[in-house]
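4.2 Preliminary Data

To establish feasibility before requesting continued support, the project team ran the inverse folding procedure on a target of 260 residues. The structure was first converted into the token representation described in Section 3, and no sequence information of any kind was made available to the design step. The complete token record follows.
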């Protein structure tokens, strides 16, 4: 299944439940033009529509990547006239962060500014060893926005986040992995196979439990964890996926999960 866009490639594999969004402006290193921002939001709306029209959970995981030499270099500065506010609309980051299912960033090449914020808005991040990271906004006289500094602080701690925000320094995938910004830094030729394998693994799990687990992790610090965990545990024990998992265990067979 595929849909037509101008600045992204969108696809969905129904048997596996894995969707894909490829930022497709390689000549501009996938800079976040107004059209790309809008289409990225529409891409995730299309995934939500699939879920809403399905009997259960249709979209088990989404992989986000970039065409060419970059994941994304952030704002498309060429679009801004002199004196125009350089802040991106929040929707481009919220599209991934607010999607109910797991979102995996496949980073190969430059991942800078708003591109790094976009990657941080995903649940999981894997990078090739040739990837390069940084927050150059400070050199434009503006701070990094879109929630990126909060996500960066959570990953690397306040001191490191402040340093990256105020210096604009670049760092490689190995350092990004050591900082906890990416899950793994992989040889270039191994990245795509590793991301495919990871997406397939999480897509094979009970989707309601996967989504609930993501919600619980995100909610720490906002809601008493024990209260949230009890509520989610009680809710999921009423699901068909839970009953199927128990039955499959007792019958010594592979379970089939539908997200109900």
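Position-by-position output of the design step:
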């Amino acid at each position: 299944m595929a849909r037509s866009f101008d600045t992204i490639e969108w696809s969905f594999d129904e048997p596996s439940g894995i969707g894909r969004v490829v930022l497709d402006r390689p000549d501009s290193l996938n800079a976040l033009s107004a059209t790309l921002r809008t289409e990225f939001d529409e891409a995730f709306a299309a995934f939500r529509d699939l879920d809403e029209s399905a009997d259960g959970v249709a979209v088990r995981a989404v992989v986000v990547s970039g065409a060419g030499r970059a994941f994304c270099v952030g704002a498309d500065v060429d679009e801004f006239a002199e004196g125009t506010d350089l802040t991106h609309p929040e929707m481009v980051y919220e599209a991934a962060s607010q999607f109910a299912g797991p979102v995996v960033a496949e980073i190969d090449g430059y991942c800078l500014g708003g591109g790094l914020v976009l990657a941080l808005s995903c649940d999981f991040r894997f990078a090739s060893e040739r990837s390069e990271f940084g927050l150059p906004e400070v050199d434009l006289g503006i701070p990094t926005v879109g929630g990126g500094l909060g996500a960066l602080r959570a990953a690397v701690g306040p001191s490191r986040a402040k340093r990256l925000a105020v210096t604009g320094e670049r760092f490689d995938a190995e350092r990004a992995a050591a900082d906890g910004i990416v899950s793994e830094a992989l040889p270039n030729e191994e990245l795509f196979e590793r991301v495919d394998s990871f997406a397939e693994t999480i897509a094979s799990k009970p989707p309601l439990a996967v989504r609930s687990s993501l919600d619980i992790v995100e909610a720490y610090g906002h809601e008493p964890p024990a209260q949230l965990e009890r509520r989610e545990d009680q809710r999921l024990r009423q699901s068909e996926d839970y009953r199927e998992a128990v039955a499959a265990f007792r019958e010594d067979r592979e379970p089939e999960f539908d997200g109900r």
